[in-house]
## 1
Amino acid sequence: MRLAIHSLSALIVSVCIAAPAVAKLPPPSDEAKAKAAEAAAKSAWTDKVGGYQLCQAMSRAAEHYRKAKKSAGKEAPAAVETPACTDPGAFVAAVVAAKPLEAAGAHSPTTMATSPPNSKATAAEIQGQPKK
C-alpha cells in the first residue's frame, strides 16, 4: 500500500514538473532566425574543414605507408584513385541588411508635436488662449 502511495505521489510530482516544459514558446524574432542560420552555416563550414583536414591526413598516412614498405624492400600496393581533397576556403558570413529606422520602430511618434519638449509655455498659451 505504501509503495502505491509513493508511486502515485512521484507521478504527481513529475507531472507538475514536466507541465511547464510543454508550454508554447513565442516564435523567434528575425534577428534570432538570422543568428541561427549563421550558426548553421558556420557549423556546416566547420564540418567541411574537418573533412578536408581528414582527407589530407589520410593521404599523408597512405604515402608514409607506401614509403615505409618500399624502404623495407617490400612491394607496396598500388595507390587507389580517390578524388582530390578540396579546400572549403575561409568562412564568409552572410551579411544581413539592417532594417531601416522606420521599420525598426525607432522613429518619432505618429502624433505631431504641438510645442518643443522643453517649452516653458503653459497649456493655455500653447492653445492660443490668454494666461489666467
## 2
Amino acid sequence: MTTKTVKLTKVGNSTGVILPREVLEKLRVERGDVLSVVETPDGIELTPYDPDFADQMEVAERVMREDRDVLRLLSE
C-alpha cells in the first residue's frame, strides 16, 4: 500500500482537498467529476462509484427486464 499526503485548502466557505495527479488517474476522474465519500470500518473512502445510484440502476434494469412488453407498448 502506498501512502500519499494531501493538502487541505480554503475553497470559498468550505475546505477542499488537493489530490495528486497519480490519485486522479487511479480513480479515473478529472476536475469537475463527482466523488462519493463512503464511511467504512477502516475509515473514509473516496470513490467515483455511487452505491445509491448503482442500487437505483439495478432496480431500473430489473423493471425494464421484467416489464419489457409493457414498456414497449407505452413507448408507442
